[in-house]
């Protein structure tokens, strides 16, 4: 069976609500999204860095419920940095925006603990040399890249194991 015939068969199965077709296309989606993410993460590991001035670093409460389990938080930062004589402001901590509840806000604090702060008022800012407005305080680590690659291929491996073993 050629590739185009197989793809058409998977379209037909998915449109009929069959597990094999849905699993195949979900696996394709995960592969594309996660491989793009991997590419981006690897790129950020080679971005340039500069030292910026931190104005704010902490957590932002997104909801104001009195019920602690319904309160939501995300990381919050404001910093300025200079690239080639031009001053920029940034708010991004990492490429991934985490939102969590009150009980798990320690995850956000742990993430922020990984930020490189040479002094209490300064922070290392990683920026795209060709687009200095694209910045993060955390660059992708090897473990995160490995997890993303695994997340890309795991659905396909399970698909092949289930339907072609």
Please mark out the parts with pLDDT under 50 across 5 or more consecutive residues, or reply none: none
Number of domains: 2
Largest sheet: 6 strands, antiparallel
Rough outline: extended
Helix-strand pattern: HHEEEEHEEH
Q: What is the residue-averaged pLDDT?
A: 92
Radius of gyration: 21 Å
**DSSP strand content:** 25-35%
Summing up helix and strand content along with how strands pair, one would put the structural category as alpha+beta
Helical residue percent? 40-55%
Concise summary:
The chain is an alpha+beta fold and 165 residues long.
What do you see in this structure?
- This is DUF3592 domain-containing protein.
- The chain crosses the membrane at residues 22-40, 143-161.
- It holds the Pfam family DUF3592.
- Keywords: Membrane, Transmembrane, Transmembrane helix.
- Residues 72-137 form the DUF3592 domain.
- The chain has 165 residues and is an alpha+beta fold.
- It folds into two domains: 3-44 and 145-163; 48-139, no CATH class.
- It contains four helices and six strands.
- The protein has helices at residues 3-15, 19-44, 105-113, 142-163; strands at residues 48-61, 72-83, 86-90, 99-101, 122-128, 131-136.
- Strands 1, 2, 3, 4, 5 and 6 form a six-stranded antiparallel beta sheet that branches.
- Strand 5 (122-128) and strand 6 (131-136) form a beta hairpin.
- Helix 1 (3-15) packs across helix 2 and helix 2 packs antiparallel against helix 4.
- The longest helix is centred in the first third of the chain and has 26 residues, at 19-44.
- The protein starts with a helix and ends with a helix.
- 15% of the residues are buried.
């Amino acid at each position: 069976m050629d590739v185009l015939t197989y793809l058409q068969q998977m379209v037909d199965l998915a449109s009929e609500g069959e597990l094999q077709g849905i699993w195949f296309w979900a696996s394709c989606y995960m592969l594309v999204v996660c491989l793009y993410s991997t590419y981006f993460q690897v790129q950020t590991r080679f971005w340039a860095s500069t030292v910026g001035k931190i104005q704010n670093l902490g957590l932002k409460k997104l909801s104001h419920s009195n019920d602690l389990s319904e309160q939501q938080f995300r990381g919050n930062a404001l910093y300025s940095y200079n690239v080639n004589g031009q001053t920029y402001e940034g708010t991004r901590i990492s490429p991934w925006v985490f939102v969590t509840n009150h009980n798990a806000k320690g995850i956000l604090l742990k993430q922020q603990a990984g930020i490189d702060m040479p002094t209490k008022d300064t922070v290392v800012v990683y920026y795209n040399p060709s687009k200095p407005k694209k910045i993060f305080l955390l660059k992708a680590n090897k473990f995160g890249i490995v997890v993303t690659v695994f997340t890309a291929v795991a659905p396909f491996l399970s698909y092949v194991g289930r339907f072609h073993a």
